[in-house]
Structures are given as C-alpha cells and as structure tokens.
Amino acid sequence: MTPARAWHVTVIIPVKGHPVLIDDAIASVERELEAGVIRRLIVVEDGCAHDETRRALASWQALLGVSMMVLHTENGGLSRARNRGIAAALELDPDLDAIFLLDADNMLAEGAGARMGHLLSGWKEADWFYPEFDFFGQNGQYITEPKFDLLLAAEANPCDAGSLIRRRVLDAGVRFDEEMRQGYEDWDFWLQAARLGFQGRSARQPLLHYRKRPVSMLSRSHAQDDELRRYLHRKHDWLYRLPKLVALEAERFPRFALIEGEARKVTLCVDPLEPRGSDWRALERMIMAHLADPHANHAPVYLVFLREGVAEHLTSMRLIHAMLWTCERRVERSGRDMELFFLDHSDDGSLSLVTDGGNPERPADAICLSISALERMVRDPDEDWLRRLDSLPLPCETESWSIRCPHWLPESGGSTSAAEIMRAALLSLARSPWRGALTQEWNWRAPGGAIRRERVVQIPRGAVEGGIAMPLLKHDDVRDIGIVLPIFSFGGVEKVAANIARELRAEGYRLHLFVISDRPVHAEPWALEPFSTVNWLPDADALDWSGEEYLGTAEPAWGEGMQAPDLMGLLASMDAVINAHSAALHKVADGLRRRGVLMIDHEHLVEQSTYGRGYGPPHLALAYEQAYDLFLTCSETLRLWMHGNGIPAEKLIAVPNAPGYPMSPAEQRCITGFRGNPHGRRAPLRVLFLGRFDRQKGIRRLCTIYNVLAERLPQIDLTIAGRAVVEDQGQQLSWPPQVRFLGPVLGPEALTRLLTQTDILVLPSYFEGLPLSVLEAQRCGVVVLAAEAGALHEAIDEGRTGFIVPQDECERHIIDRILALDRDRDLLAEISARTAGHSRTWRDATATLRGWLQERLPLSPPVAARQPRSLHLT
Amino acid sequence: MGAEGQNYALFVDPDIPADCRNLLPDGMVILADAEGGEEPAPAPGRSCLAALVSPMNAPGWRLRLRERGLADLPVIEVDPASPERASQNLFGLLSQRMLAAERELGEMRAASAMLRREGQSDKTRFRAIESFLYALGEPQIARILSWEPTGVIGHMTRDTVLLQRLPIDAVSITAVDLWLPDLPRNRDLGLTVAVIDANGETLEMTEAYGGQETRSGWVRYLLDAPLPGDPRNCSLMLRYTGAARLAVGMGPRVPDPRFAAKGDGFDNDMVLALRVWKAVAGASLPDEPLVLHSPLGDGRHARFLSAGELPEPELFAKPASATDYVTADYWENEDAIMVHPSRSGPVCAVLRDVALPRLSHITAVVTVGHPQAPNLNLAVGVAPAGLVGRDGFWQGRIGPWVHGLPALGWAQAHCVPSEPIRDRADIFLAASLAHDGPNDLSWALFRGLRVVTGAPLDEAEE
User: Exposed, middle or buried by CB within 10 Å (0-12, 13-18, 19+), for A608?
Assistant: First the structure.
C-alpha cells in the first residue's frame, strides 16, 4: 500500500577515505532531498584516517541540519559501518520505509529521489531495487538483469550495494556480514534476503552513478575471488547444492531441446521426465533471439536431434538420463561440435554403452549439437555444407557412441535419421525469417559481468567443481538413493545391490543404478526393476587398478582432469549413495559427503592372492573411512573384520546376505513339501557346482572331486552350472565324461528348477564372503558342502544345515562326506528338510539399514512405493 | 535545507563542579547522565564539539562515546583544582577548529578559481571544435537506428496505442521517422507520437509537416529538445485517435518478443519501420526541418499496394546474350514479386495496365531475399499503359537504381514518372547484379509499391 504520508527513504553513507569525494556524494543527496522522498542522510564515519573527513562532515552537518546525522565509529569494516547506519536509521525514524546505501565515492543520479518514490509505489511486491550499472571515471553502462534470479545470483552478484531496500528486509534481520571485510558482502546480503524469500528487481532507471576506478575495493575483491566464493559457498550451502541449482536451472533455463522425427517435435527440458512441450517454430525463434541477444534470451545449450521413437525407447528403458548426461559430457569434454549416437540392438540381451565409434557410414539415431557450434553454422551459413549434412559419413569431424539394448529393433532405413532432421533444422535456421536480427545490436549497454545464457548450464556445475550435472530434478517427497557398482554382470555383489534396491524402493525411496566403467550390464529383469534410472560413467580406466596401493590393494589411476568432477556431477543429486565395490567412487566420496550426500560403503569379500595375502575392496574402504557415513557388510564376520581394522563400530551395520533372488511364500511352501517327500532313497546322488569358473571357486579342486566321485559312484549325477568370467580355467581341465555343463543358468525359474533337482551343492572355494548360491541352495533343500571360508559358518550349522570342511585336503573331505551321505540317505533327507523353504529375507536383512536411513532421510508419509516400469531383459 | 536545526553541543559530566559548568554557554551544554539528562550520543543536526568530564570519569566516558557513535570526540578533563587548564584546552580546541575551517575556506577559494580557469579553457576549446563543425556543414543529427519497411502494413484504428521498445539509449534522441504509406493529406491526423523513457516520462513529439509524406511515406516527428539526462532505456508510443484506419509500415521480424511492436491488432513479431535520429552534441533541430515545403490540400492520395494486389508480372526484357537463369514471378507465400537478373545484364519485369490516376510518385519496397545472394541493384519505373513496347527503351522510365543491396538487405526504390500518367500505367521492376559473378540465388524481391496519385485508387477501381 502506498502510505498516506510521503515515502521516507534514508540514505546511508559509510565513509572511510574519500574526504573530498564524500562532498560529491553528500551534495547529490542534498539535491535529492527536495523531492521529499529521501528525508534523512546518515553518514557513518568508519574510523577514517583523514581528519579532513571529519571536518567535511562537520561542514555538511552545519549545512544540512536535522536532515543529517553523523556517527563516528572505530574502524570495523564496511559491513559493520553499514549495519551501524541501518540500526541508527531504524531507531531514528519509526516511519522509515526504505534505505538506500550509497558509497562515499559514488553519487545519486539526478532525479533519483523522486524515482525511488515511484519504485516504492509502483512495485509493491519488490523488496529491493538495484540500479543499473552506470559508471563514471572509467565510463560504462553495463547490463543488469531485469529481475533478481537466484540461479544467476549464485554465479555472480547482480546487484550493487547501492540499492533501495525496503524496511521489511531489514526487519527480517538481514544485515551485512561483518566477517566479510575483503568484499562481496553485498552479494552475501542479497543471498540472505533471497533465502528468506525476498525478491529484488532492477530499478531500470538511473539511481546511482558508480565511480569506477582501476583499483578499488571491488577490484581487490576480484583478486580474492576464489577465497571469497569459497566462503559464500560454505555460508550458503542451502543454495550451492547441486539439486537446488539444477532445480533453479529447470525453472527458467531448459538445458536440452529434444527435436524428434521428421516433423521435428520439440520438447525442452533439464530432466527429460519433466519436459516442457514446444514446437519447432517456437524453438527456432528462441534460438534466434538468443543469438541476437545472448545476455537476455535463453536457448537450450544442447540440441539433440533424434530419430522417431528413440527417445521413447530410451525413456522406457530408463536410459534417457544417461543418454543426455553422456551427450553433454562428450560434447563438453571433447570440444567437438557434435556427437553422434546410435541405439543398437543387443544380441545377448545385455545393456551396454560403447564409446569411440568414430564417424561411421551409417545414419545416426541421435546427434547432439551445442548451441555454440550451431551459432557458427547459422551466423555465417555455408548452405552447400549444410545440405550435405545427411551424407555418410558426416562431412565434419565428429565421434560417436552407442547404447546397445534388447528389444530395440531399429527400422531398416524407414524413418528419418538424426542427421536428416538436423540438416532440415539447420537449413531452416539459416533461412530463418528472424536472421536479420543477428546483424543488429539489441542492447546498448555493454555486457560487463552479465552472464551469457549459454553459460547458465555451467552454474550448477560450480557446485561440483565443474562436473557435468545429472539432469535429474528432485522433489520434496522423493528421496533419491544411488547404488554404484564397477560392473553389473550376474555376480553376487550385483544381486545383493538389486535386492537392497528392491527393499529400499518398497520403502519409498527412488533408486538409481550407476555403473562406473564401460562394462555392459548383464542383468535379469527383476534385478533392474527397482531402478528409476540406469546410468554409466563409461571410463575404461575406472577399472585399470594401476593407481596407488593402500595396504597392498591398488586403486585405479582414474580420476584425472574432469573425471572426478564429472562423477560428482552424476551423483551429487542423490540423497544417499551406496558404493558396492567401486574403487573410483572412493576418490570422490569425501567430496560428495561434504556436499551433503549420505555416503554408504558396502563390502562383501576379502580376496586372497595366490600366496594367501588378503586384499581387495574392504582394504581400500579402510583407506576412505572418513569419507563415508556408514559401512555395510554382507556378514557379521566381515563387520567384525572391518571393525578390527579401524572402522568405528557406530559406522558399521551388517546386512547379512539372503538368497540372491526373490521367491514367493507359496513357492517356498511347495519346496518344503517337496523335500519332505524325497525321491527314491537309492536313486543316484545329484551333485552340483554353481558358480564362476575361476581360481577363487576352487575349480581345480572341483575337477579332482568330480573325477574321484565318477570313479567311486559311477551312477552319480555331476553337474556344473556357470561360466568363466575372469579366467578360463575350466577349459584346460580333464573332466569325467558324465559331467553335465549347463553354462550360465539364468533366471529365478531356471535356477529353482535346477536346485530342486539337486541333492548336494559343493563349494570348494579358497575364499568366500557369504555366497548367495549357498543360501539359495539351502532354501531349495540342497545340502551344501563347502570349504571353510569367509562367513560360511553364518549360513551353515555344521552337521545340521550342511557341512563345512577344512581348506586342507578339502577335496578329500568333500569326497568322503559325499560318499557318506550317499550311504546315509536319511541324514541327507533330514538336513534337506531342515533347510528347505527356510531362508532369511532381504526385508529382514535390511531392517537396520532402513531404520538408519529413515532417521537421516525421513520419508514423508505416506509414500507408496512406485511401481517400476517393466524392463525386459533376457 | 537550511541550518535551522543545527546546534553545537558540549557533553558535560554532572560530576564537574557547578561553578565550572556555569562558565559554559547554556544553549550548548548537554548535561549527560544526570537525572533528566541524556546519554551522550549523536543526533540529527547536532555537531558535537567535546565532552567535558571529571578526570576520574574520563576512561568510562571515552568507552561510552566510542560505543555510542562518538569515537574520537575530544574529551577535556576538568580538574576542579585547576579549572583554567580545562578552559585553555577548550579554547585551544575551538581555535584549532576555527583555524582548520578558515584554512579549508581558503583552499575552497583556490579550488574554485582553479575550476573556473579550467572551465574557461574547456569553453575555448569547445568553441574551436564548434567552429570546425560549422566548417564541416553544421552536422546536427545522426541516424542511430534504422528499420526499413518490409512491405507489411499494420493498421491502427481509433483509440488504439502502439508501443515499440527501442534498443538504444534515450539520451539525445531528437527525431523519429515513421513510415505511414497511406497518410492522407490531413494535419489533424490524430496520431500522437511520444518517447517514453525508463523514468516513465512521456515526451510528446511534434509532426514536422513539410509535404514529404506524400513523396516517400516517411513522416518525421520531433522533440522540442534532444532528450537530456543519464543514459536509459526508452520506447516509442503511438496513440491514434483518428477516424480512418491508419496504415503503419512494419519493419523486419524480430525473434526477441521484447522488441516486437505491441498494441491492438499488432500481435506479430515485427518492429515498426522507423528511423531514429540523435542530436550531435545536444544540438536541437528547428521546428520545421530542412525539407521542401509544399502547399496543403493539393489533392494527392497515397496508397500502399502489396505484391498480391498487383497484376501478375511478366518478363519484359533480358539481355540478348543471357543464357543463365532469369525469371519474373509472383511468390504467393512470400507475397513478393521476384525478378531474377542475369549475369549478362539487367532483367526487367512489367506489371501491366494498373489504374494509377495522375500518378506522381511510386516507391518500391525491395529486398534481396536469399542469404547467399550476391549484391544486387534494384529499380522501379513507370510509364503510361502500353506506351513502351516489348523492345522499347524501358530504361528511360526507370527511377534511380538502389545500388549494391546486400543479401537480406532492405531498401526503397523511387520513381517520378517521366511522362504524365493520366489513368493507367505499366510498372517496371528491374534488377541486376552489382558485380560480375554467377547469378545463383539472385532473389530480387519487390514486396510492394507505394503510389501517390491524384485521385483515390478506390474510386479509380470503381
């Protein structure tokens, strides 16, 4: 409301130095007093070294009488002086409406007083008005933003301290930070105000003449820019968090334009799941407006041209975030104008990301083009070249990458390729009716420190040391948890991750999978079901193990250049991250934790070298103890080991393994009944080995065991299920002829069928954690015979629920035990019946973890677990 | 602001003996801390000279003065045993202040003299520069912004307002030309043109009527004086209160919505066709600009004809040696007539038998339509219908050529008929290449014609 009385503005001038120039400042205020809006001047003499200053103030006091008040203080810095002035203004004039902060060497513009009144009357909702940057001395007029934008303000201070500030901002307690004596205290002031919900806007008319000199407090502040920014980042961590900055980006500055199909359907987005509909004409205008005045008009920084159906398929596969993030990363890190993308069919059912595909002679499914490259192409178009853009290979230096996934059946030349879509779009821009606008200046002000809109995408990156920010928007009622693995390929660690993910999703969290290597994802459909997004950091060197060693375990050399920031950019939007054996992630774990991400490490297995030396992921985890909030172990045994090696007990939770795949209660009851009625007492024994063919699993021992058993029990049924993942030892061994090699048994149904047709599972491993195969076998009533290792004793109660044999002469012990069980079928049946249908559930196993998370990441009830979109992998 | 509220103050410690206090002037003494007294503190209009305190209270006083915003205020200790010391100190303090004030006054006088000397020197130099400018022909204005007409016409109706944001700083704007192609010869047009600056001030302009409007369609509006003040944004406002529809020429399309002309019926993405002029160094234009005067009410009528309103063009002439692509065609989607010249020479199209009673002036809005086009020359001509045969000397009927128009450039070509046009006329549209080179993409586009006739076209058509 406009007050019935006239507005009351008090001008506050802090002065230290400038004993002569203060005259110009005060004279400019004196002139404006006549308009009746500025009604008081308060000068705070901040311990100025010049007596002349005090004499000048006494002279002005004599001239201005009660319109002026002078405070003399000991030097306490600019912030303190301003705060003293603010306090005096509030105390002195109860009817104060606003203050204007004027530096001693600046001047009010002519007519500023009346304009302040107009601003206060005309823009009731605005809490402060910042002036245009009009400099004298070093003359210049710089651009200011028409409205205070928090994202832009996170990057650079858009407002001079010389602003008109309404009283309500001061009444809310916003003051200058007296610790900040080197500068940027005004920037901090506006961020404080913005945090409380106050909004600033440009006065859009001259209020202030700013004296610009080569050396000033501001120029000194710029010299200490890094240090001062660090202080601001720490103080305003509510703002300098990646999710907050990405959310601000999404409000006004869409990062991607997805241009799809021959019709050039356009969607604009940061997060592809929260798109904003548009059309090509609107995008064309947006782009031309940006090129005409890049400081005022935004256009998406990445234009992604897509063959029809590609985006939909990637979205259904939950790969669209990964695709866009990788596009952005490749364009930024390569410096190339464009990156080609192919969506290929995966023959083996795996999901993989393949890099460095060159510039092949086949039409791309998507092309990512940066706005800066587009600008070069459109400003000075070479139409001949543009017309050849659909030729193969593309007539420019480019690279390609691809995602191979199942159920993608690319059309054989039927639909319009990405290059054809891009060609048509670029020709349209080159012939745009708005091109004439590019030949004219649209802003008579110089850019100064204004932010070109294509730089906006870099602002969120500032929160993660320049890393590429995952295009994911968060919501208040959703907590995001990322599970990070170095590979995702049938292994136990992967199955555990999938089971934990399923339980956390059921709890209400949103889960994301991150694979930190370029290895393909081999997964059964249920294992990927819990994840809302599937992502890669496809750096081959994330698994090279050629870095420094800690306690004899090497790290990867990965992490050079922008690799580590990029990983932070990928993960910093998570509320919590669970690291399941990614050594690369350790390198950014502390950085993520400092950025507010709950960091959880999950350990499974202490490996053994050929000479029996322990090494592996738990050893590396010890090196990063301070970087994690919590350590999970797959067994009590490993929890004790980690504690014994230095991890505080409060930071350890055991999530003891449960069977690797889910089984319904009805199915379990069925198995219990089945094992209670065993097949013929004298039928040949059925023995199974289930696992990888490698040294760890004792494949040579198994060969010995099977050869002896074949000789002693010619009717015995010997089966091997699994395949070599790391080594290929099985091929070199001599197996008895009756051994059946099943290869990998995939899918819960096939595995259950195999186990229900098995009496004994042998596990002659040299070292183990708490193997899932043992738990799965026991649940199906299979009697387990295992060499003593890891936490097997947590699963096997010797003689009651299975047998553990010593590592020494393990082969002989296993053979003897099998021969004994062959003779004593009652014992076999008794043990089988005791385990069949019984197993720990992942719900139970994760109870403590879920409680721990709930304390730190409370879910706003009621959050129904979202049903995952189905992902069909075979 | 006067000094009515001004007063000098001496803060006095109540512990000072009364006989000492009584020596001080009443109006200046502020007895601090005594019952009914006040805290020593600054106040508006109060100039504090010193605090007179008891020696035993001096440290506490210094601390309080610092805390209350009176740091460095001289503290004079008044010892009852030797009050003359305090008196000497107080007079010493006042003498110092008076000495400093008088010295500063002297310096101010010296500074004033120095500034006057500098001012006189600047005036002398400025006078020399001014003489030089007179010698150069007295330049007064410079064109700062130019948006050429593109052949699109907007229409303002009664009581409508049109706003055009300008991408220039308001300071020194002195004149604006608008393209009003159908402007009737009527000084009571009802169009008010004003500059609105960022301060919200509306500065009305005056129409500089000089007869020019029926020749080219450009009408100039002047400010009383160039806009003074600090650099700031500005817009142009057109308010129309006339009865008939007012045709307003539009300029190029702009992608940035902030700059599209806004108003009733103007929801497209174009700017107004206009030219903005700034005064050189604050020079004012005379009320009546340097244009030809012509009598009022001479019965002229102006009308803009878009390409679609004209007859289909025919290829009229091309160089005999031309073997490259030439054409004359109407492009419906562009609403333009395209004349494609030859590398061998100019190509001319004809629009036959157009009713143009007593035509006195014809203006073609032209553009080079393709971004890859070479620079082109364009011209318009007119002759009584049927006068020029196929092999006739059409060049003699053509007005001055617009030379070397670059790709996507806009201009206007003019022609005054060399023979009187009584009723109907043939219009010639000619184009040629500005340089010797391939004629690929030489899209010479004629977007429309502005004609000034002796009778309204509507009547002629009837």
Answer: middle
